[in-house]
Specification:
The protein is built from 16 helices and eleven strands. The chain folds into three domains: 145 residues, NAD(P)-binding Rossmann-like Domain (Rossmann fold), CATH 3.40.50.720; 147 residues, no CATH class; 74 residues, Rna Polymerase Sigma Factor, Chain: A (Orthogonal Bundle), CATH 1.10.1740. The strands form two sheets. It has a seven-stranded parallel sheet with strand order 4-3-2-1-5-6-7, with helices on both faces. The protein is globular. The termini are far apart. α2 crosses α3, α5 packs parallel to α6 and α14 crosses α16. A hairpin with a 4-residue loop joins β10 and β11. By secondary structure, it is α/β, with parallel strands linked by helices. Bound molecules: NADPH dihydro-nicotinamide-adenine-dinucleotide phosphate and magnesium ion. The site of NADPH dihydro-nicotinamide-adenine-dinucleotide phosphate (NDP) has 26 residues, from α1 and α6.
Length: 401
């Protein structure tokens, strides 16, 4: 049995809380070294006390002072800022880093963990969407171990041949007999809604996911299926699969979490109840196995598993993600950053639901061909995409006023 020393980035979020739930079930297997959060200071303080964290990190000085007051008399040291997130992701005493910050903010600490050769438990898919080439290079160069937390990618990881992930393996799925990666998608809350009523969708309706409890941003992404689009790009980098070998199939019950199809016609899948503690527990102790607190799968009770092809008229964001992946370069980073802006504006009730795909399409067209030779280029593309999205949305407002 291996004892793991953990940093959990985004400990106060949905993935962070689920991670600590699994950790709490196995006190003999884990030590919590660092926990990080942003706004939920009281929750972070409570977590630090419960798990006796050595460090707590927040982004700004006011929050740090408030956290210090809450942690008075404890053994937790409070650190501040992006450098501190990178620091706790690369500490020598830490072997595993759960990267569960939401959005582009998660990139730098995840990269720091890869460069320090850690076991990187990657929930922050935005890291791969923005900077997949550089992140995968860092994992390779620094002998980091990359374990996907996203349920679909965790399912693919479990369904791929073990030899594919061995050091020195030819990371070409076709050379391992893989024909296609089949990502399942629930289809979200609007899978069967009348197309002409999509324009009336409210944030409350969009974040009410039928099967999963998640943060607000990823819940909206699930409703638009941008989440699946980002996951196609994520799968491309994780498994070195060309876009035409990655297919999305809608599976409303969210029991089959994804599949790998082999040349001989075999299709291997991972099944479980839709509970993120399963992929989290898998990655925390891989290649061992532990109980995750998840209900056992009762297939007889579930009865029916159904599958259907996604409709790109209903889910144009999925098509945009395939387009961005085909365009390559900075296009995925542009799509990702613009998406963060439009989703925030939608959640803030500043824009209607259908402005999400329309604005993303316009930003991708406006910024086509941006350079992507370095991480700095990608950061610049990210910043430009945010400006372009805000400009386009402001124009939209001006027209309507
Ligand atoms: P949440 O919004 O629930 O949590 C996000 C976490 O990141 C919180 O701890 C939050 O702190 C922190 N945070 C937010 N913004 C920043 C910032 N700018 N800098 C530093 N920390 C920040 O998100 P989820 O847990 O749902 O998702 C986390 C990641 O995992 C995302 O990338 C998502 O795509 C991915 N993922 C999530 C799944 C899920 O089921 N939830 C499934 C698959 C992937 P605080 O709350 O204290 O403000
Ligand atoms: Mg997923």
């Amino acid at each position: 049995m291996t004892l793991h020393a953990l940093t959990i980035l985004g400990a106060t979020g949905t993935i962070g809380v689920n991670t600590l739930d699994v950790v709490a079930r196995h006190p003999d297997r884990f030590r919590v070294i660092a926990l990080t959060g942003q706004n939920q200071i009281e929750k972070l303080a409570q977590q630090c006390r419960q798990f006796q964290a050595r460090y707590a990190v927040v982004l700004d000085a006011d929050k740090a002072r408030a956290l210090e007051a809450l942690l008075a008399g404890s053994n937790t040291e409070v650190l501040v800022g992006m450098e501190a997130l990178e620091y706790v992701s690369s500490l020598p005493e830490v072997d595993s880093v759960m990267a569960a910050i939401v959005g582009a903010a998660g990139l730098r600490p995840a990269l720091a963990a890869a460069r320090a050769g850690k076991r990187v438990l990657l929930a922050n898919k935005e890291t791969l969407v923005m900077a997949g080439r550089f992140f995968m290079q860092a994992v390779h160069d620094h002998h980091a171990t990359l374990l996907p937390i996203d349920s679909e990618h965790n399912a693919v990881f479990q369904s791929m041949p073990a030899a594919y992930f061995e050091r020195g393996s030819n990371r070409n799925p076709a050379a391992h007999g893989v024909r296609r990666v089949l990502l399942t998608a629930s289809g979200g809350p609007f899978r069967t809604r009348e197309l002409d009523t999509l324009k009336d969708i409210t944030p409350e309706q969009a974040i009410a996911h039928p099967n999963w409890v998640m943060g607000k941003k990823i819940s909206v992404d699930s409703a638009t299926m941008m989440n699946k689009g980002l996951e196609v790009i994520e799968a491309h980098w994780l498994f070195n699969a060309p876009p035409e070998q990655i297919e999305v199939v809608i599976h409303p019950q969210s029991i089959v979490h994804s599949m790998v199809e082999y040349l001989d016609g075999s299709v291997l899948a991972q099944l479980s109840n839709p509970d993120m503690r399963t992929p989290i527990a898998h990655s925390l102790v891989y290649p061992e196995r532990i109980e995750a607190g998840v209900n056992w799968l009762d297939l007889a009770r579930i009865g029916t598993l159904t599958f259907e092809a996604p409709d790109l008229r209903r889910f144009p964001c999925l098509g945009l993600a395939y387009q961005a992946l085909a365009a390559g370069g900075a296009a995925p980073a542009i799509l990702n950053a613009a998406n963060e802006e439009v989703v925030a504006a939608f959640l803030d009730k500043q824009i209607p639901y259908l402005a999400i795909p329309a604005t993303l399409d316009a930003v991708l067209q406006r910024l086509a061909g941006q350079p992507a030779e370095s991480l700095e280029d990608l950061m610049a593309a990210d910043a430009d995409a945010r400006i372009a999205a805000r400009e386009l949305l402001a124009l939209d407002h001006a027209h309507r006023a």
